[in-house]
Write a structure and sequence with these properties.
Blueprint: H1 2-11, E1 26-31, H2 39-54, E2 59-64, H3 75-81, E3 86-87, H4 114-121, H5 124-131, E4 138-148, E5 150-153, E6 167-170, H6 174-182, E7 186-189, H7 195-201, E8 206-209, H8 211-216, E9 225-227, E10 233-241, H9 242-246, H10 250-285, E11 289-291, H11 295-305, H12 307-311, H13 313-328
Parallel strand pairs: 1-2, 1-3, 6-7, 6-8, 9-11
Antiparallel strand pairs: 3-10, 4-10, 5-8, 5-9
Helix pairs in contact: 2-10
Amino acid sequence: MRKWILAAAAAAIFVAPGIASAQSPILIKFSHVVAPNTPKGKGADKFKELAEKYTNGKVKVEVYPNSTLYKDKEELEALQLGAVQMLAPSNSKFGPMGIKDFEVFDLPFLLPNEAALRKVTEGPLGQAMLKKLEGKGMIGLAYWDNGFKEMSANKPLRMPEDYKGLKFRIQSSKVLEAQFRALGAVPQVMAFSEVYQALQTGVVDGQENTPSNIYTQKFYEVQKYTTLTNHGYIGYVVVVNKKFWDGLPADVRGQLEKAMNEATVYSNKIAATENAEGLDEIKKSGKTEIIVPTAAEMAAMRKAMEPLYQDMASRVGKQLIDDVVKATQGVTN
């Protein structure tokens, strides 16, 4: 696959920054792995609209949803090699690259609500994390929300012991791997585009995701039960190839930053709405039973996952975990 990406990078034809004309605009390929009608998909389309508008056609943005250009296992390498200019990978993706700070977002029950999340992403902690991406040949432009995750499987999930022995699809993340092992489950790393078929055929028994993803990817059609745990968060970092970005004319880069800022506000604003609407549609379908855990059941889940904070401190960074807890303590929506 690396050879294919290298060939694509070599063959990629886009006008070098600074010499765009009416006949040859600067091309930005924006690849992502989710459906167009998700918060990230709509955010990418909004960026395209605004970027082309604010640059008066000097920039053309091509959006590739649903892994049509690269699968999620390949996309970051493609960005580093210049075969694609912009991505919005999940926070978990940066851990395998050696930037483990972003895996702090994978810790269960760390972020209690959206306001607490904003304290991190819009504060000094979030900005310091973005700076670490530059050493990997990319620039972090924004944090985009997907939302808080629910659990699903073909058996009711209420207490920690209900997870024992079940195979759960996860993104590549040591934190998520440890999360499911703490519950006695078997984590299996799998590309997002492969999850539906894996659930349908029984390759995995369950998964965790936001309602908007569960709905748009039709996971609810092949899962008998969905438990509203809100235990974790899925978010994305919009990244751009550093060499490409640094080579843009200053005025074009400024217009693109404006477009990205507005697309970020738009995308994050609709994320909560999309999740609420997705959950409503899932309920209406009647294809999966919705389980609302009791306070006692949620307390048992939190207790089962408490050891992760200590176990993952050496990987994610104890100071970072402590800083996130301190920054979000007492924050309410």
